Amino acid sequence: MSLTVKDGQNFALKSVKARLAGQSHSSPTQWQPPPPNIVKVNFDGAVFGDSHEARVGVVIRNEHGEVMASLSEKIAIPSLVEVLKMLAARRAAIFARELSFKNVWFEGDAEGVVRSLRDGVSSNAFVGHLVKDFRSIVGLFQTYSISHVRRQGNTIAHALAREARMSIHLRIWMEDVPPNDLSVVTKDFSS
User: Which end of the chain is less packed: N or C, by CB atoms within 10 Å?
Assistant: First the structure.
């Protein structure tokens, strides 16, 4: 995980670094809460070939696992899954900024995308623009980090991406998720 700190480093961010330093190099398989005063923003994307549409899902949770906000949005179907995941990360960053969070830990399940966003390196020109855009948005946070989690640790964001299939263009829930996804939050929280 990469950790970027502006205006000094506080205790909570030292806690993130210490926790991650103690982990093996493999990505976590279940959702882990962030330290106090940091929100974790999970993101994912899904493609539905039958309808030629794509969707992104974003969930923001606090250190207690409580949902602060969630989002499900239809977008134009991109040519590559990598682009879809980049667009989901970009939307997650915008959503967190819109809600005025200051200390943010982003987490996604596409390892190559997370690596590109973290390192600022991309595989092609279009993806490079998305990486640059993401990094310019997250640079506005007081602190931010980005890490990879396996799909099992990103189930709510994935469910939200799939949720959009049945819904209008953009849906936002404050301190909640759609009723169909509530059991996923509860399962994550009790793990």
Answer: C
CA dihedral 152, 54, 127, 58 (to 10 degrees): -50
Q: By C-alpha distance, which of 153, 169, 48 is closest to 110?
A: 153
The region of weakest confidence among 5-9, 97-101, 111-115 is 5-9
Q: List the alpha helices (DSSP H) in the chain.
A: 11-21, 81-98, 111-119, 125-138, 155-163, 182-190
> pTM (2 decimals)?
0.81
Task: Report how far residue 38's alpha carbon sits from residue 61's, in angstroms, rounded to the nearest whole number.
Answer: 9
What confidence tens digit (pLDDT) does each residue in 62-90 have?
999 999 999 999 998 898 899 999 999 99
In b/e form, how buried is each residue of 159-169, taking b as 16+ CB within 10 angstroms?
bbbbbbeeeee
Topology at the third CATH level for domain 31-190: Nucleotidyltransferase; domain 5 (3.30.420)
Q: Which tokens sit at 37?
A: 């005063």
Specify the amino acid at residue 148. Answer: H
